[in-house]
Specification:
Helix content is 13%, strand content 29%. With 214 residues, it is an alpha+beta fold.
Length: 214
């Protein structure tokens, strides 16, 4: 499936992150070695003004970009006919599915968020070291950002990630009820409400590197 022009932003992001990491003189880069990784994406529910908190157990991680392996909303019926198996091999779950800003049904991220340290960015001019702690006895995960950065600082604004689950009985929240006309979303525009579904919006952080232990 050929990607749209909107998806070329993701390709631009891969090449631009190297420039970003060397152009910004943050204290954390002066003292830490970084292992670059292909961009990964964190879906987070934290408040935009938060610099630390709990609740990272509700976050998810895409280890690969879910856009290029997604399925266009307009092809949902073909996805059904394929037994809910996407061309890239991942399985669609009608009771828990995701949309991006272009109208792509995405593979769900990995839950819960793996504990660790991640260099994150908004893809423009903000970088921070995100620390996600191991779950406590109640399964809660604390998190924090370095250099006084907030979640809003390191959120990649153009990306949207919305999770849809049934309001009522299983199987009643279907992508066929989603409007195709609203895509691609405009800047600042929320993903659409879908009949029969509860919608939860996630901010997206881009992971471009991991700290090297010395």
């Amino acid at each position: 499936m050929k990607n749209s022009d909107k998806l070329t932003r993701r390709q631009w992001l891969v090449s631009s992150l190297g420039v970003l990491a060397t152009a910004i003189g943050l204290p954390l880069f002066a003292q830490t070695k970084i292992r670059r990784v292909q961009p990964q994406y964190i879906a987070t529910l934290a408040p935009g003004n938060a610099m630390s908190g709990t609740g990272a157990e509700t976050w998810g991680l895409w280890r690969i970009d879910p856009g290029p392996i997604g399925v266009w909303l307009r092809f949902y019926q073909l996805l059904q006919k394929a037994g809910n198996i996407a061309p890239a091999g991942w399985r669609f779950d009608i009771n828990d599915w995701w949309l991006d800003e272009n109208g792509l049904i995405m593979k769900a991220p990995e839950f819960p968020m793996p504990a660790g340290k991640y260099y994150v960015t908004n893809g423009e001019d903000q970088i921070s070291l995100l620390t996600v702690e191991q779950p406590d006895n109640d399964g809660k995960q604390a998190w924090s950002l370095s250099d006084d950065k907030t979640i809003a600082n390191v959120t990649h604004g153009p990306c949207r990630s919305a999770r849809y689950t049934p309001t009522g009985a299983a199987g009643t929240c279907s992508p066929k009820n989603a409007s195709l006309e609203v895509f691609p979303l405009k800047p600042g525009e929320s993903p659409p409400l879908v009949s029969g579904c509860d919608r939860k919006e996630y901010a997206v952080l881009i992971v471009f590197g991991l700290p090297v232990e010395v």
